[in-house]
Thiolase N-terminal domain-containing protein
Amino acid sequence: MASQRLASFVSQLSPSKTGVSAITAQHPDDVVITLALRTPLTKGKKGGFKDTDLDFMVYSLLKKVLEKSKIDPNLIEDVCMGNVSDGKAAYKVRAASLAAGFPTTAGASSVNRFCSSGLKAVQDIANQITEGSIEIGVAVGAESMSMGGDRLEKPFHPEIVKNPDSNDCMQPMIQTSENVGSDFNITRKMQDEYAAESFRRAEVAQKAGWFDDEIVPITVTVKDPKTGEEKEVTLTKDEGPRYGTTAEGLGKIRPAMPQFGDRTTGGNASQVTDGGKFTLRI
């Protein structure tokens, strides 16, 4: 099937239809995203979703998907969710999709490819459509990093860690970050400057409302960590952007794990985040 699609694509190329124009040309068998939505992205362990489990986040998002798309839910044939930190993710996406109004005839599954788990879910749905197993599917990427975590509970078997590549699978992400920085000569100053510019762009975009049409408001219960008092809040905006961040300010932050290197800090690395995103593909 893949070779047939490639041959079909190549046959349609011409001297006047190459590069971007060739890649973006429309074909009857294209797999397209018809709707893309997401929750606000909140700070793990202290943000708006810190007391909300994965199942409710996914349920709330899928419910909004049906409202926004106005699609007949009986047409949806599969739901695939990318998730890293929850070993019960397959149960939760199945139950959440049923509660949100998806039919029992629609399948549900979860996939884990670490940081690219959401993309893997999109790929799985697109591949099913391409090879004819389904016509309409839903891809989701969601994490509750407040509730879960991807660290191993115990080391691999001694026979496995004898292989140096296998042993490296146990290293934390910050160690990977420091390795990449060292391999490609990315300095602490470069990382701080890039992070500051990223914060600046996020601030401009958020203040201008550029994210508003892709975010669906989610109402949750949040518990005060000191008093235990609970209150309902409606989350509408990302909590990550830190207004007024400068490279000079970031340069004063200590390295997160100096045993691995001095480049990565709590200021120039991505935050621990709770949230979810969705795409409807046809």
